[in-house]
Amino acid sequence: MSSSLLLSPHDLRFLLYEWLDVEALTQRPRYAEHSREIFDAVLDLAQQVATDHFAPHNKYSDAHEPTFDGQRVHQPPQVKAALEVFAETGLLAGGMDESVGGMQLPHMVASACAAWFKAANIATAAYPFLTVGNANLLLANGSPEQIDTWVRPMVEGRFFGTMCLSEPQAGSSLADITTRAEPQEDGTYRLFGNKMWISAGDHELSENIVHLVLAKIPGGPPGVKGISLFIVPKILVNDDGSLGQRNDVVLAGLNHKMGYRGTTNTLLNFGEGSHCPDGRPGAVGYLVGAPHQGLSYMFHMMNSARVEVGAGAMALGYTGYLKSLAYAKERPQGRPVGDKNPRSPQVPIIQHADVKRMLLAQKSYVEGALALVLYCGRLLDEQKSAESEDERAQARLLLDVLTPIVKSWPSQWCLEANNLAIQVHGGYGYTREYDVEQHYRDNRLNPIHEGTYGIQGLDLLGRKVTMRDGAGLALLAERIGTTVEQARKAGDEPAELGERLQAAIDRVVTVTTQVWGYGDTEAALANASVYLEAVGHVVVAWIWLEQLLAAHGKEGDFYDGKRQAARFFFRHELPRTGPQLDLLASLDRTTLDMAESWF
Amino acid sequence: MSSSLLLSPHDLRFLLYEWLDVEALTQRPRYAEHSREIFDAVLDLAQQVATDHFAPHNKYSDAHEPTFDGQRVHQPPQVKAALEVFAETGLLAGGMDESVGGMQLPHMVASACAAWFKAANIATAAYPFLTVGNANLLLANGSPEQIDTWVRPMVEGRFFGTMCLSEPQAGSSLADITTRAEPQEDGTYRLFGNKMWISAGDHELSENIVHLVLAKIPGGPPGVKGISLFIVPKILVNDDGSLGQRNDVVLAGLNHKMGYRGTTNTLLNFGEGSHCPDGRPGAVGYLVGAPHQGLSYMFHMMNSARVEVGAGAMALGYTGYLKSLAYAKERPQGRPVGDKNPRSPQVPIIQHADVKRMLLAQKSYVEGALALVLYCGRLLDEQKSAESEDERAQARLLLDVLTPIVKSWPSQWCLEANNLAIQVHGGYGYTREYDVEQHYRDNRLNPIHEGTYGIQGLDLLGRKVTMRDGAGLALLAERIGTTVEQARKAGDEPAELGERLQAAIDRVVTVTTQVWGYGDTEAALANASVYLEAVGHVVVAWIWLEQLLAAHGKEGDFYDGKRQAARFFFRHELPRTGPQLDLLASLDRTTLDMAESWF
């Protein structure tokens, strides 16, 4: 696998250095030890390890998915071997503080590094990146002792982590979980229940697995207000850090997925009596933070996980784009329009307008998504390092608004990119001899997990743009307005596209007010998914205008390509939002009015 | 598998009897032997056989795809068993003339019967339906002797057929095929070459396989004008009809596909010397019709095959819709908007607006596609049985225009329906424990085979709407105008939707003229795929208005559902065409202007 088929190093560096100016962060105390040379070195390291150790078994572990013999999970040995190399790089803790053994890299850089692994092998990469989320939650909410016991081995790559939210009867509806945690005299808890859809829930890739589990302490408030968070390890750890007894967390079964096959996805039973630590029933759990506050802790992790889902969708879209581009340059087929001479040689299919359309659409989706993901990384960096509390709070607010979009937009449009990558390949793209069909299957998970597309729509329209009297949407509009102002100053094409973007965001603001102005919550939220799609396109148009400005006045193929992709997005994509916003403005009730018996 | 999860018998009967009035055909000589009772009986038979013999092994043969041991192809025995039951029904020749052993059913009815098998198991159904296309081509262009030798055993279910067009170096570009056919003294030919992507190209499901092969006779004209058509059987047939020597057609390998796995897809070698009939090299072939006319014969078959592809896409979309509907009615999750009480019971997810949206969108796609497919069947019936030559010619012309649409529209939107069916299922939909992920994988083939989406766009914009001074588009607009006139007379909602449809088709006509008015063929065709998508949506809006009129004034859940789906299509779907037609009217050159080096 050539690394040139995973991501574009040129594009990454353009975004990081020419657009987001990550180097400027090295002026801030948190990142003062860093430099462009260090950033380049870790990016190169990520590219090399991803290319040499993750990409080669991507297809193999898809074709040889994990199996469970009733006792143990079996996976191809390449998975564990790759993760061992990954652990040695220290990249798992790339974004974490030096105080816990991390590199304290800017999130932008850590995110760009992570993208290489996701593009190379999303299923193998899931194990460490789930672990990062787990560790970050404990760093934010765990006790010093918990951090010492559980996070340190994660940073070293010895323990992996999971998040256990869903249950068979409660997928998206966490209020309805029934796993219970019974307090013990020694301050620990014993957990009983079943968790569904737990990624990396069992395997033999690490010495131990640290589950973060949502459960209810009996007697607590009903619904989401009674949810607490627990550390429940697969294997208990002794006081000296060595592994102790087996805890009563048992794999009940593996789910067999369409894609993403290399990541085990599990149904776990807690406290069903297969193992009884110290002879007593229940899986041993340790409360994180205060009782009944579990959901807010988990949402801290969940929000990061949502950005990660978008990043994964982007990475799959990106590699599929590059592979279809390489194919289109090599595959001769047909002749230009107007050349009817069958004796003239066939041309590479990239010369056909419709193939260019499919490539340019992919480019606009995947480069737009990468830029959006890195922009969200920048907002995390601002939260951690901006000088004033006001700047930090603004970054937090803007990321809050963008989270459902950065989760959903790549999940939709980079999946569409994979769809187009197959189409560019023709029949070959439909076969497992080529890579793109796997990317398409892998990517189909992303609109589902960590909150479905519909839930993200409700989050955006029902919460994010309304909270604090619409301060989040106002901030987004303000930031877009700033970009438009820069575009005006640049004149010419940026100015023209800027006017179109201004009109689009103005319309979003107006329609948002209209939708809520009717005073009918049910109707307002009925088309929340359409709202999410429309606002996502406006946001990505903004991100494209930002890229256009970063390329402005620069010469060369790369910059010409950025300009043309920006044009494509404004001409072919942004106009889609018109009818969507019209529909929303009309407070359309077509779906609400559909009676169940009419189906 | 309950048959209620494959297709809706109610919908089929509504379309056939209440809308298309298939009973009226029994007044015509060709169908005079038939009656509604007969139609109902064959529809019931198809439903029963599809449900009992095709659906049960759909998942199994996906998980156990065909294997090739170098000598023989192995498939699960259920496939052959199902095809034997199918042969007994006589449905393979349902639409064929009684003179060749067919039932001489209206195409509408034969198509509705076929839909059951496609919904139940598209991969197993492919074998007989490819055979039907093969047989129809020979009935139209073969000699009486050829028909006797090859078609009769196909009608009896003993021989299956293929179509061999593509080659490894020539997928969509048939001008570049290199398979050659050398004339022999006895009037037969010997073929040499390789054919790629041949569905059902090898198997042990039938006694023999009849390949229809495009090849070039040395010395003929270059390009497509030098292509001839040959019958090349896997096994030669003796004068008495018994099987003779093995012909030199050899399976070089199976393609391993993302979906549609139960249908073998093959690379075939002709005349490579594995078998040499009568000790001489080459695969024995028999010329069909005149030399160098092969492509026109093949396109006769190809046009039917394109309708069939659309029908298959529809069937997969339809069954996915019904399965997600059943799931949504049964799966409790969450509470209505505004009910924050966690002690209230969870509701079935069908009560959530966004789930209704996903179901209603599916309904509008799959019922729209089924209606379009049956309408095309009606046009075939008109071609065969209309009283005047003028009516027959009009039906032929309209079907010519609609062929790229009926091929492509379901391939795009019923695939999207499958996407939504997965989404309705949430995580379960992503697992192979449920059916919908397979439908999605199976359906992804349909935008590729029998002419890719891009090629259909070129066919529609570059040929079908321009041929004969735009007579085809004018006829389409006239038929739509007739429906709009009926809607005006019906008043109220039909009239209102009719005005919107009239505006849409007027815009299509105007934009078509504009696109060609610039005198720039390359630019005119650059966005042909966008044109195909826009015109497809306008056509399906018309088909929905037709259904609305057929339901007009009728009471009951079924008719209410039709009305609501029509509303959905006009409110949520038809407006998509606005920006698409704007783009076309601007003769957008964004893709054309993208240089290869800019990617």
UniProtKB/TrEMBL annotation, chains A, B:
Belongs to the acyl-CoA dehydrogenase family. Its cofactor is FAD. PANTHER family: ACYL-COA DEHYDROGENASE, ACYL-COA DEHYDROGENASE-RELATED. The lineage of its organism: Bacteria, Bacillati, Actinomycetota, Actinomycetes, Streptosporangiales. InterPro entries: Acyl-CoA_dh-like_C_dom, Acyl-CoA_Oxase/DH_mid-dom, Acyl-CoA_Oxase/DH_mid-dom_sf, AcylCo_DH-like_C, AcylCo_DH/oxidase_C, AcylCoA_DH/ox_N, AcylCoA_DH/ox_N_sf, AcylCoA_DH/oxidase_NM_dom_sf. Residues 163-266 form the Acyl-CoA oxidase/dehydrogenase middle domain. This is Acyl-CoA dehydrogenase. Residues 477-594 form the Acetyl-CoA dehydrogenase-like C-terminal domain. The keyword Oxidoreductase applies. Residues 293-458 form the Acyl-CoA dehydrogenase/oxidase C-terminal domain. Residues 41-157 form the Acyl-CoA dehydrogenase/oxidase N-terminal domain. Keywords: FAD, Flavoprotein, Oxidoreductase.
